[in-house]
Amino acid sequence: MPRGVVPRQPARTGRQDKVRVGTGTPARPGRGNASAAALEGRQKSAPKPAPAAKVKAYNPVAPERVTEILKRLDLLYPAVTCALTHSSAWELLVATILSAQSTDVNVNRVTPELFRQYPTVEAFAALEPEQLEPDVRSTGFFRNKSKSVVGAAKRVVAEFGGQVPDDMEKLLTLPGVARKTANVVLGSWFKKAEGVVVDTHVHRISRRLELTKQDDPQKIEQDLMRIIPREKWILFSHQIIWHGRGLCIARKPKCADCPLENLCHAGDKTWSTVDMHKNAKT
After folding, report:
1. Active site residue 180
2. Residue tagged active-site, from 145, 199, 223, 269
3. Which element (helix H / strand E) includes 244?
4. Residue-wise pLDDT tens digits, 45-56
């Protein structure tokens, strides 16, 4: 470059070559401002894209889902009651103690003869556990069950005048009585909803339906008490127990015949029209 010759510097306006700022297109004389205004107008008038619809997260204990489950259970099992044969609070208490780790069918085979031999709570209280063992052997764990039944009879006679108490705290003082047994007696005989019966069927199916993630019966009961209306506590337990015997069988559930099927995402379903959740199983 010759000495003293300074190259022309671009103007700050960007118009030295009649080029629009930010474009490579030559501008027409007198049209720069109008074109910019038109572009800005088009940008303002262009419709804004609609926001993406939010997908509602799946909530297994949402009130509407729980309500629908209860509604369908009511249609399936409108008036089911306790399956244990009994004619008094004491007989129900004995039958419930014997039902642990046994079936109701098996217990119902044992109790008629048992109550014929020992017709009152006082008759049971007069026994030693060893005397009762042969009569309840077929229900399993017969030694522990004999001790519990005789011990409960002695306490009912000694402390409650021969009448099974209708109070949770008092029932829990009886040998062999935990919350499940107490809830059975209070709900099925005294019609008092103090809790939810959590037997093996309720334990298993409430987890399959994702109504709880707990494995401890007392924690499962607390979860169910939070999401199920109190007036449904007694009937709900009976309904789930009957459902577990008839359709939601442990080893091979009859999912294709189940009216709850499209509400159930259990990971071990035998047939499904919905997504299956690997953690929703027993």
Report:
1. yes
2. 199
3. helix 233-246
4. 656 666 665 657
